[in-house]
Design a protein that fits this description.
Blueprint lengths: L2 H8 L6 H6 L4 E5 L8 E6 L2 E7 L5 E5 L13 E2 L4 E2 L6 E2 L5 E3 L1 H6 L13 E2 L1 E4 L2 E4 L20 E10 L3 H6 L5 H15 L9 E9 L2 E8 L7 H4 L2 E4 L3 E3 L3 E9 L2 E11 L14 E3 L3 E2 L10 H11 L16 H18 L24 H6 L3 H6 L1 H8 L9 H11 L12 E2 L2
Parallel strand pairs: 12-19
Antiparallel strand pairs: 1-11, 2-3, 3-4, 4-9, 5-6, 6-7, 7-8, 10-11, 12-18, 13-14, 14-15, 15-16, 16-17, 17-18, 20-21
Bound molecules: FE2/S2 (inorganic) cluster and fe (ii) ion.
Protein backbone atom coordinates (compact mmCIF):
# COMPACT_ATOMS: atom_id res chain seq x y z
CA UNK A 1 0.00 0.00 0.00
CA UNK A 2 1.33 3.45 -0.78
CA UNK A 3 1.02 6.44 1.52
CA UNK A 4 -1.78 8.01 -0.51
CA UNK A 5 -3.94 4.91 -0.24
CA UNK A 6 -3.22 4.61 3.48
CA UNK A 7 -4.34 8.21 3.94
CA UNK A 8 -7.44 7.61 1.81
CA UNK A 9 -8.54 4.62 3.90
CA UNK A 10 -7.84 6.14 7.31
CA UNK A 11 -8.99 9.79 7.19
CA UNK A 12 -12.48 10.21 8.60
CA UNK A 13 -13.16 13.97 8.63
CA UNK A 14 -16.38 15.37 7.12
CA UNK A 15 -14.81 16.21 3.77
CA UNK A 16 -12.93 12.95 3.23
CA UNK A 17 -14.08 9.99 1.09
CA UNK A 18 -13.90 7.48 3.97
CA UNK A 19 -15.56 10.01 6.27
CA UNK A 20 -18.38 10.08 3.73
CA UNK A 21 -18.55 6.28 3.65
CA UNK A 22 -18.63 5.81 7.42
CA UNK A 23 -21.21 8.55 7.80
CA UNK A 24 -23.64 6.45 5.77
CA UNK A 25 -23.95 4.02 8.68
CA UNK A 26 -25.53 4.43 12.13
CA UNK A 27 -22.86 4.47 14.85
CA UNK A 28 -23.32 3.49 18.51
CA UNK A 29 -21.83 6.30 20.57
CA UNK A 30 -22.93 5.75 24.19
CA UNK A 31 -25.02 3.64 26.54
CA UNK A 32 -28.42 5.11 27.32
CA UNK A 33 -28.05 4.46 31.07
CA UNK A 34 -25.01 6.76 31.12
CA UNK A 35 -27.49 9.62 31.01
CA UNK A 36 -29.51 8.65 34.08
CA UNK A 37 -27.36 10.85 36.32
CA UNK A 38 -25.37 13.17 34.10
CA UNK A 39 -27.53 14.12 31.16
CA UNK A 40 -24.90 15.76 29.00
CA UNK A 41 -21.45 15.01 27.67
CA UNK A 42 -19.09 16.19 24.95
CA UNK A 43 -18.43 13.69 22.18
CA UNK A 44 -16.08 13.83 19.25
CA UNK A 45 -17.14 11.79 16.24
CA UNK A 46 -15.27 11.47 12.97
CA UNK A 47 -13.42 14.70 13.69
CA UNK A 48 -16.51 16.71 14.69
CA UNK A 49 -16.89 18.20 18.16
CA UNK A 50 -20.43 17.61 19.39
CA UNK A 51 -22.55 17.44 22.52
CA UNK A 52 -24.81 14.52 23.35
CA UNK A 53 -27.56 15.21 25.86
CA UNK A 54 -30.87 13.88 27.13
CA UNK A 55 -33.36 16.59 27.90
CA UNK A 56 -35.91 16.56 30.71
CA UNK A 57 -38.53 15.10 28.36
CA UNK A 58 -36.00 12.26 27.79
CA UNK A 59 -35.33 13.24 24.19
CA UNK A 60 -31.73 12.73 23.09
CA UNK A 61 -29.99 15.42 21.06
CA UNK A 62 -26.61 15.50 19.32
CA UNK A 63 -25.59 19.01 18.34
CA UNK A 64 -22.46 20.98 17.57
CA UNK A 65 -20.41 21.84 20.60
CA UNK A 66 -19.97 25.54 19.84
CA UNK A 67 -22.92 27.82 20.51
CA UNK A 68 -24.08 29.77 17.45
CA UNK A 69 -23.94 33.05 19.37
CA UNK A 70 -20.31 33.53 20.40
CA UNK A 71 -19.08 29.94 20.38
CA UNK A 72 -19.31 29.04 24.08
CA UNK A 73 -19.04 25.34 24.92
CA UNK A 74 -22.51 23.79 24.91
CA UNK A 75 -21.29 20.73 26.80
CA UNK A 76 -21.50 23.00 29.87
CA UNK A 77 -25.00 24.06 28.95
CA UNK A 78 -28.07 22.98 30.86
CA UNK A 79 -30.64 20.52 29.69
CA UNK A 80 -34.24 21.62 29.93
CA UNK A 81 -37.73 20.30 29.26
CA UNK A 82 -37.03 20.79 25.59
CA UNK A 83 -33.43 20.84 24.50
CA UNK A 84 -30.25 22.46 25.64
CA UNK A 85 -29.48 25.99 26.84
CA UNK A 86 -26.11 27.71 26.54
CA UNK A 87 -24.68 28.75 29.90
CA UNK A 88 -23.24 32.03 28.53
CA UNK A 89 -26.28 34.10 27.44
CA UNK A 90 -29.04 31.54 27.61
CA UNK A 91 -29.73 30.79 23.97
CA UNK A 92 -31.63 27.51 23.84
CA UNK A 93 -31.79 24.87 21.07
CA UNK A 94 -33.98 21.86 20.42
CA UNK A 95 -32.77 18.48 19.13
CA UNK A 96 -33.06 19.61 15.51
CA UNK A 97 -30.57 22.38 16.31
CA UNK A 98 -33.22 25.08 15.97
CA UNK A 99 -32.72 28.01 18.32
CA UNK A 100 -35.94 28.21 20.35
CA UNK A 101 -35.10 30.95 22.81
CA UNK A 102 -32.88 34.04 22.96
CA UNK A 103 -33.71 35.57 26.32
CA UNK A 104 -32.44 39.12 25.82
CA UNK A 105 -33.46 39.47 22.17
CA UNK A 106 -36.86 37.91 22.91
CA UNK A 107 -37.34 40.56 25.61
CA UNK A 108 -36.22 43.71 23.84
CA UNK A 109 -37.09 42.92 20.24
CA UNK A 110 -39.55 40.05 20.13
CA UNK A 111 -40.98 41.24 16.80
CA UNK A 112 -37.68 40.43 14.99
CA UNK A 113 -38.01 36.75 15.90
CA UNK A 114 -34.26 36.52 15.34
CA UNK A 115 -34.09 33.03 16.86
CA UNK A 116 -35.97 31.56 13.88
CA UNK A 117 -32.94 32.37 11.72
CA UNK A 118 -30.48 30.49 13.94
CA UNK A 119 -29.96 26.77 13.58
CA UNK A 120 -26.93 24.79 14.70
CA UNK A 121 -25.69 21.48 13.35
CA UNK A 122 -27.70 18.57 14.75
CA UNK A 123 -27.75 14.87 13.95
CA UNK A 124 -30.46 12.22 14.38
CA UNK A 125 -30.15 10.08 17.51
CA UNK A 126 -31.97 6.88 18.43
CA UNK A 127 -31.86 4.46 21.33
CA UNK A 128 -31.86 0.76 20.52
CA UNK A 129 -30.67 -2.23 22.60
CA UNK A 130 -29.60 0.16 25.35
CA UNK A 131 -27.21 1.93 22.98
CA UNK A 132 -27.44 5.52 21.82
CA UNK A 133 -26.93 5.62 18.05
CA UNK A 134 -26.11 8.59 15.83
CA UNK A 135 -26.36 9.12 12.10
CA UNK A 136 -24.05 11.77 10.64
CA UNK A 137 -24.64 11.08 6.96
CA UNK A 138 -26.73 12.44 4.10
CA UNK A 139 -30.48 12.02 3.69
CA UNK A 140 -32.37 9.77 3.36
CA UNK A 141 -31.59 8.19 6.70
CA UNK A 142 -31.08 4.41 6.40
CA UNK A 143 -32.53 1.82 8.75
CA UNK A 144 -30.87 1.38 12.14
CA UNK A 145 -29.98 -2.33 12.02
CA UNK A 146 -32.04 -4.56 14.29
CA UNK A 147 -29.62 -7.47 14.82
CA UNK A 148 -31.20 -10.58 16.28
CA UNK A 149 -29.24 -10.69 19.58
CA UNK A 150 -30.83 -7.35 20.50
CA UNK A 151 -34.13 -9.23 20.80
CA UNK A 152 -33.00 -12.35 22.63
CA UNK A 153 -34.56 -13.23 25.97
CA UNK A 154 -32.97 -14.42 29.20
CA UNK A 155 -29.62 -12.72 28.93
CA UNK A 156 -27.57 -10.35 31.04
CA UNK A 157 -26.43 -7.44 28.89
CA UNK A 158 -23.73 -4.88 29.51
CA UNK A 159 -22.15 -2.11 27.46
CA UNK A 160 -18.48 -1.12 27.70
CA UNK A 161 -16.90 2.00 26.31
CA UNK A 162 -13.22 2.87 25.94
CA UNK A 163 -11.23 5.44 24.04
CA UNK A 164 -8.38 3.81 22.16
CA UNK A 165 -5.67 6.17 20.89
CA UNK A 166 -5.33 4.97 17.31
CA UNK A 167 -7.13 5.02 13.97
CA UNK A 168 -10.31 2.95 13.57
CA UNK A 169 -9.16 0.90 10.55
CA UNK A 170 -6.40 -1.01 12.30
CA UNK A 171 -8.98 -1.88 14.98
CA UNK A 172 -11.41 -3.16 12.37
CA UNK A 173 -8.72 -5.16 10.55
CA UNK A 174 -8.53 -7.14 13.79
CA UNK A 175 -12.14 -8.26 13.12
CA UNK A 176 -11.08 -10.40 10.19
CA UNK A 177 -7.94 -11.91 11.66
CA UNK A 178 -8.59 -15.42 13.05
CA UNK A 179 -4.97 -16.38 13.65
CA UNK A 180 -4.34 -13.62 16.18
CA UNK A 181 -6.60 -15.47 18.66
CA UNK A 182 -4.06 -18.26 18.89
CA UNK A 183 -1.17 -15.92 19.69
CA UNK A 184 -2.55 -12.76 21.24
CA UNK A 185 -5.19 -14.41 23.41
CA UNK A 186 -4.40 -18.09 23.96
CA UNK A 187 -0.62 -18.17 23.89
CA UNK A 188 0.07 -14.74 25.36
CA UNK A 189 -2.40 -15.32 28.22
CA UNK A 190 -0.73 -18.64 28.98
CA UNK A 191 2.75 -17.15 28.88
CA UNK A 192 1.73 -14.19 31.04
CA UNK A 193 0.59 -16.73 33.63
CA UNK A 194 3.65 -18.96 33.29
CA UNK A 195 6.79 -18.20 31.30
CA UNK A 196 7.26 -21.73 30.03
CA UNK A 197 3.60 -22.60 29.57
CA UNK A 198 2.93 -24.83 26.56
CA UNK A 199 1.46 -23.17 23.50
CA UNK A 200 -2.18 -23.68 22.61
CA UNK A 201 -3.63 -25.48 19.59
CA UNK A 202 -2.52 -24.32 16.16
CA UNK A 203 -4.60 -23.04 13.28
CA UNK A 204 -4.48 -25.46 10.36
CA UNK A 205 -6.65 -23.57 7.91
CA UNK A 206 -8.61 -20.32 7.69
CA UNK A 207 -11.24 -19.28 5.17
CA UNK A 208 -13.06 -16.04 4.42
CA UNK A 209 -16.43 -15.43 2.74
CA UNK A 210 -18.42 -12.32 1.94
CA UNK A 211 -22.10 -12.11 2.89
CA UNK A 212 -24.75 -9.40 2.84
CA UNK A 213 -23.77 -7.78 6.13
CA UNK A 214 -20.00 -8.19 6.03
CA UNK A 215 -17.52 -11.03 5.94
CA UNK A 216 -17.24 -14.35 7.71
CA UNK A 217 -14.01 -15.97 8.78
CA UNK A 218 -13.76 -19.64 9.57
CA UNK A 219 -11.01 -21.68 11.19
CA UNK A 220 -9.79 -25.26 11.40
CA UNK A 221 -7.74 -25.71 14.55
CA UNK A 222 -5.88 -28.84 15.53
CA UNK A 223 -7.98 -29.33 18.66
CA UNK A 224 -11.37 -28.92 16.95
CA UNK A 225 -13.26 -31.54 14.94
CA UNK A 226 -13.46 -30.69 11.20
CA UNK A 227 -17.21 -30.09 11.45
CA UNK A 228 -16.93 -27.71 14.43
CA UNK A 229 -19.05 -24.56 14.18
CA UNK A 230 -15.84 -22.50 14.08
CA UNK A 231 -15.51 -23.95 10.56
CA UNK A 232 -19.14 -24.53 9.55
CA UNK A 233 -20.39 -21.15 10.85
CA UNK A 234 -17.44 -18.97 11.87
CA UNK A 235 -17.30 -15.39 13.09
CA UNK A 236 -18.51 -12.15 11.56
CA UNK A 237 -16.68 -9.02 10.49
CA UNK A 238 -19.84 -6.93 10.53
CA UNK A 239 -19.80 -4.15 7.99
CA UNK A 240 -18.23 -1.65 8.13
CA UNK A 241 -16.77 -1.21 11.61
CA UNK A 242 -17.93 -4.01 13.89
CA UNK A 243 -16.84 -7.45 15.02
CA UNK A 244 -19.63 -9.85 16.01
CA UNK A 245 -18.79 -12.97 18.01
CA UNK A 246 -22.22 -14.43 18.78
CA UNK A 247 -22.42 -13.28 22.39
CA UNK A 248 -21.11 -9.79 21.76
CA UNK A 249 -20.56 -6.96 19.33
CA UNK A 250 -17.50 -4.73 19.25
CA UNK A 251 -17.85 -1.52 17.29
CA UNK A 252 -14.84 0.61 16.40
CA UNK A 253 -16.29 4.11 16.06
CA UNK A 254 -13.91 6.79 14.77
CA UNK A 255 -13.47 9.70 17.16
CA UNK A 256 -11.05 11.30 14.70
CA UNK A 257 -8.16 10.12 12.54
CA UNK A 258 -6.09 9.10 15.56
CA UNK A 259 -8.63 7.92 18.13
CA UNK A 260 -11.36 5.30 18.24
CA UNK A 261 -14.30 4.74 20.54
CA UNK A 262 -14.53 1.05 21.36
CA UNK A 263 -18.20 0.34 22.06
CA UNK A 264 -19.08 -3.23 22.97
CA UNK A 265 -22.39 -4.88 23.80
CA UNK A 266 -22.38 -8.19 25.66
CA UNK A 267 -25.07 -10.83 26.14
CA UNK A 268 -24.51 -13.61 28.66
CA UNK A 269 -27.19 -16.29 28.60
CA UNK A 270 -28.49 -17.00 32.10
CA UNK A 271 -28.72 -20.66 33.21
CA UNK A 272 -32.10 -22.33 32.62
CA UNK A 273 -32.76 -22.28 36.38
CA UNK A 274 -32.82 -18.47 36.27
CA UNK A 275 -35.51 -18.17 33.62
CA UNK A 276 -37.45 -16.07 33.03
CA UNK A 277 -34.85 -13.35 33.46
CA UNK A 278 -35.77 -9.82 32.51
CA UNK A 279 -33.12 -7.11 32.77
CA UNK A 280 -34.59 -3.72 33.62
CA UNK A 281 -31.59 -1.62 32.63
CA UNK A 282 -28.42 -2.35 30.71
CA UNK A 283 -25.41 -1.10 32.68
CA UNK A 284 -22.76 0.88 30.81
CA UNK A 285 -19.24 1.16 32.13
CA UNK A 286 -16.02 2.75 30.93
CA UNK A 287 -13.05 0.41 30.63
CA UNK A 288 -9.66 1.81 31.62
CA UNK A 289 -6.61 1.02 29.48
CA UNK A 290 -3.63 1.69 31.76
CA UNK A 291 -2.43 -0.40 34.71
CA UNK A 292 -1.77 2.12 37.50
CA UNK A 293 0.92 -0.03 39.07
CA UNK A 294 3.10 -0.20 35.98
CA UNK A 295 1.94 2.65 33.75
CA UNK A 296 1.70 0.07 30.94
CA UNK A 297 -1.35 -1.07 29.00
CA UNK A 298 -3.51 -3.61 30.84
CA UNK A 299 -2.96 -7.03 29.26
CA UNK A 300 -5.06 -9.37 31.38
CA UNK A 301 -8.32 -9.29 29.42
CA UNK A 302 -9.19 -10.26 25.85
CA UNK A 303 -10.11 -6.85 24.48
CA UNK A 304 -7.31 -5.12 26.37
CA UNK A 305 -4.92 -7.47 24.59
CA UNK A 306 -6.45 -6.40 21.28
CA UNK A 307 -6.09 -2.74 22.24
CA UNK A 308 -2.36 -3.33 22.77
CA UNK A 309 -2.03 -4.68 19.24
CA UNK A 310 -3.94 -1.75 17.77
CA UNK A 311 -2.12 1.06 19.60
CA UNK A 312 1.17 -0.73 19.03
CA UNK A 313 0.67 -0.29 15.29
CA UNK A 314 0.95 3.50 15.78
CA UNK A 315 -1.64 6.27 15.83
CA UNK A 316 -2.27 5.49 12.14
CA UNK A 317 -0.66 2.20 11.10
CA UNK A 318 1.90 2.78 8.36
CA UNK A 319 0.72 0.21 5.84
CA UNK A 320 3.51 1.13 3.42
CA UNK A 321 5.86 -0.79 5.70
CA UNK A 322 3.82 -3.94 6.36
CA UNK A 323 4.65 -7.34 4.89
CA UNK A 324 1.43 -9.31 4.63
CA UNK A 325 1.33 -13.08 5.03
CA UNK A 326 -1.04 -15.89 4.17
CA UNK A 327 -3.22 -15.25 7.21
CA UNK A 328 -4.05 -11.75 5.91
CA UNK A 329 -6.38 -12.64 3.06
CA UNK A 330 -9.32 -11.36 5.09
CA UNK A 331 -7.59 -8.04 5.70
CA UNK A 332 -7.14 -7.65 1.94
CA UNK A 333 -10.81 -8.47 1.33
CA UNK A 334 -11.79 -5.80 3.82
CA UNK A 335 -9.60 -3.15 2.16
CA UNK A 336 -10.85 -4.11 -1.29
CA UNK A 337 -14.44 -3.76 -0.13
CA UNK A 338 -13.74 -0.27 1.23
CA UNK A 339 -12.48 0.75 -2.23
CA UNK A 340 -15.55 -0.81 -3.83
CA UNK A 341 -17.76 1.11 -1.39
CA UNK A 342 -16.03 4.39 -2.24
CA UNK A 343 -16.74 3.68 -5.92
CA UNK A 344 -20.40 2.91 -5.15
CA UNK A 345 -20.74 6.25 -3.40
CA UNK A 346 -19.13 8.04 -6.36
CA UNK A 347 -21.78 6.44 -8.57
CA UNK A 348 -24.50 7.66 -6.22
CA UNK A 349 -25.22 4.16 -4.89
CA UNK A 350 -25.30 2.84 -1.34
CA UNK A 351 -22.15 1.18 -0.01
CA UNK A 352 -22.24 -2.38 1.35
CA UNK A 353 -24.24 -2.91 4.53
CA UNK A 354 -26.67 0.01 4.29
CA UNK A 355 -30.20 -1.26 4.98
CA UNK A 356 -33.05 0.62 3.29
CA UNK A 357 -35.98 -1.77 3.41
CA UNK A 358 -37.81 -1.54 6.76
CA UNK A 359 -39.44 -4.90 5.99
CA UNK A 360 -36.01 -6.55 6.07
CA UNK A 361 -34.85 -4.76 9.19
CA UNK A 362 -36.55 -6.96 11.70
CA UNK A 363 -34.54 -9.24 13.96
CA UNK A 364 -31.86 -9.70 11.28
CA UNK A 365 -30.26 -13.14 11.54
CA UNK A 366 -26.46 -13.38 11.66
CA UNK A 367 -24.11 -16.38 11.56
CA UNK A 368 -23.80 -17.50 15.20
CA UNK A 369 -21.60 -20.45 16.12
CA UNK A 370 -23.15 -20.87 19.59
CA UNK A 371 -26.73 -20.19 18.51
CA UNK A 372 -28.23 -23.20 20.27
CA UNK A 373 -26.79 -22.26 23.67
CA UNK A 374 -27.35 -18.49 23.34
CA UNK A 375 -31.02 -18.89 22.50
CA UNK A 376 -31.96 -21.90 24.60
CA UNK A 377 -29.39 -21.94 27.40
CA UNK A 378 -28.11 -24.75 29.61
CA UNK A 379 -28.41 -25.63 33.26
CA UNK A 380 -25.88 -24.06 35.61
CA UNK A 381 -24.24 -27.47 36.04
CA UNK A 382 -23.87 -27.89 32.29
CA UNK A 383 -22.37 -24.41 32.08
CA UNK A 384 -19.88 -25.27 34.80
CA UNK A 385 -18.83 -28.40 32.91
CA UNK A 386 -18.10 -26.43 29.75
CA UNK A 387 -14.56 -24.95 29.93
CA UNK A 388 -15.44 -21.71 28.12
CA UNK A 389 -18.76 -21.08 29.85
CA UNK A 390 -17.40 -21.92 33.29
CA UNK A 391 -14.72 -19.22 32.81
CA UNK A 392 -17.48 -16.72 32.21
CA UNK A 393 -18.98 -17.59 35.58
CA UNK A 394 -15.68 -16.95 37.40
CA UNK A 395 -14.81 -13.49 36.16
CA UNK A 396 -15.52 -11.08 33.33
CA UNK A 397 -12.82 -12.12 30.90
CA UNK A 398 -13.36 -9.64 28.10
CA UNK A 399 -12.34 -6.26 29.44
CA UNK A 400 -10.66 -4.96 32.58
CA UNK A 401 -12.23 -2.58 35.05
CA UNK A 402 -15.73 -3.99 35.39
CA UNK A 403 -17.30 -2.20 38.38
CA UNK A 404 -17.98 -4.47 41.34
CA UNK A 405 -21.66 -3.50 41.25
CA UNK A 406 -21.97 -4.83 37.70
CA UNK A 407 -20.23 -8.08 38.64
CA UNK A 408 -22.53 -8.49 41.63
CA UNK A 409 -25.56 -7.78 39.46
CA UNK A 410 -24.28 -10.31 36.91
CA UNK A 411 -23.78 -13.01 39.55
CA UNK A 412 -27.29 -12.41 40.84
CA UNK A 413 -28.67 -12.80 37.32
CA UNK A 414 -26.71 -16.03 36.87
CA UNK A 415 -27.76 -17.32 40.29
CA UNK A 416 -24.16 -17.85 41.44
CA UNK A 417 -22.09 -16.69 44.42
CA UNK A 418 -20.73 -13.19 43.83
CA UNK A 419 -17.13 -13.71 44.84
CA UNK A 420 -14.62 -11.00 43.98
CA UNK A 421 -13.01 -11.42 40.59
CA UNK A 422 -9.59 -13.03 40.80
CA UNK A 423 -7.80 -10.18 39.13
CA UNK A 424 -9.49 -7.10 40.52
CA UNK A 425 -6.81 -4.51 40.27
CA UNK A 426 -6.12 -0.83 40.62
CA UNK A 427 -6.36 0.84 37.28
CA UNK A 428 -6.43 4.41 36.09
CA UNK A 429 -8.33 5.85 33.21
CA UNK A 430 -6.72 7.32 30.14
S1 LIG B 1 -22.35 32.10 23.50
FE1 LIG B 1 -24.05 30.85 23.78
S2 LIG B 1 -25.62 32.20 24.33
FE2 LIG B 1 -23.90 33.47 24.04
FE1 LIG C 1 -8.62 -10.28 19.65
Amino acid sequence: MDAAENALLTRVGPDTPMGGLLRRHWMPIAGSTEFSHNRIKPVRLMGEDLVLYKDLANTFGLVQRACAHRRADLSYGFVEKCGLRCNYHGWAYDETGQCIEMPYEDTVAPQTNYKRKIKILAYPVRVHAGLVWAYLGPQPIPELPDWEPFNWANGYRQIIISEVPCNWLQCQENSIDPVHFEWMHTNWSRRQAKLDAPLGPKHLQVAFDAFEHGFIYRRQREDLPPDHTMWSVGRVCLWPNCFFLGDHFEWRVPIDDENTLSVSWFFTRVPNEQEPFVQEEIPTWHGPLIDARTGRWISTHVMNQDFIAWVGQGRIADRTKERLGLSDRGVLMLRKQLHADLKSIERGEDPKGVIRDPGKNNNIALPIAEREFLQHGLSVEQMRENPTLSDHLKRFIFQAGQPRAVWDDFCKAMGIEGTPQADDREVIRT
